[in-house]
Target: MFS transporter
Amino acid sequence: MEKNSNAKISVREKIGYGFGDFACNLVYASISSYLLFFYTDVFGLASSAAAFMFFIVRIIDAVMDPIVGMIVDKTNTKYGKFRPFLLYGAIPFAVLAILCYSTPQLSQGGKILYAYATYIALSVCYTFVNVPYGALTSAMTQDQHESVSITTYRTFLANIGGVIVAFFVPLLANQFSKTMSLSKSWQLTMIIIATIGGVLLLICFGTTKERVQVPASHTKIKFSDIFEQFKVNRPLVILSIFFFVIYGVKSVVNSTGIYYVTYYVGRPELVKWYSGIGTLPALFVIPFIPWLSRKLTKKQLMTLSIATDIIGMVGLFVFPSNWITAIFISRGIAAVGNGMISAFMWALIPETVEYGEWKTNKRLGGMIYAVIGFFFKCGNALGGMIPGLVLSMSGYVAKQAQTPTALNGILIATAVIPICLYIIAIVCMRFYNLDKETYARISQELQERNALELAKERV
Model:
């Protein structure tokens, strides 16, 4: 039976697909939000050493993305091109996440080597899961509205994962620490989180389908084809820069939240609530993204989303540390904007895949997602390093009252740096030239052209 690339996707399949990002975000959010804190305050690394390691590991991770993308695009199995990576990557993904949050009895040098080894291994495994998972969207449908809908389910469930991590990780770690050591409590917490993630990846594999068919000649690719894409695929170039900036912001915000509440606000017991409010409001906004995408242009929607996040960041900066309610309202406003950004930006990637195929007759689904991954992980690397450097430069010392200079450093890393990066993101999206009408025309032309080539191949 011929697969219909414009068929309506069932709610069951959309939820199943969303479980994949639910799983990825359980681990990703745990790493982004708590690993720096775990390394400095539990594992026992100096903040400068941890910051440098974050930068090195994330650069290695980013370099792996194009390599993994090439492997994905050359894969062809009975399960499809992208889904097999979910099947075979689920268990290693869970095991490595647990090892990252384990504290072996080693010397300081041994601990640093262990941290590098486990963090690099998890990052590479994450790439082998997340790149094909992201590219799977472009293989499920060529309908723009269905792509936005699928991405909405994905982002909603990813945010569910974020809420669980934000609230339950510190809650469980604190609860378990009452009956065991702090290091063991963090390890047990990650055993629970990672196991759930592994199971969800397997469900994602079992419930999704790859429908989009392309001529065989479009899948004969080489690594150098990605450089041609950067010459002719302007939407890909703009989106790559945008992802770099946005994920730099995300990494900074995720890493600094626990320091902001623990030391600047002085209420460590509120960390789980602050983290939860940083994710929860998005759950109420994300379902409206498909409607907003019909009413607003892409540039308007992105500008509105970023401006909302900036308003929340300004609140975090200007309100005194004892204005708890105002701080939490500001955190919620920023979360609304961030949720809108996340829900829509991923829906733009299939467009760049289609545009690239239209321009070059080469469909680089895996490699394009890998390129996007390379840029957002470079953003992660920079964003992950910045808080540690700011903390080190401002005189931060773990587990004690901070100096005014250190508190000011925490405040700058929490709000000022993200606002500056967001302004760059707004300017960047002004150059995105693939509007709704242009994309609809290109997609129609591509489908007609491919249908003719497929018909010739069958003769």
Remarks:
- The chain has a mean pLDDT of 84.
- The CA atoms of residues 45 and 108 lie 8 Å apart.
- Residues 13-208+228-451 form a domain with the Growth Hormone; Chain: A; fold (CATH 1.20.1250.20).
- The chain has one domain: 13-208+228-451.
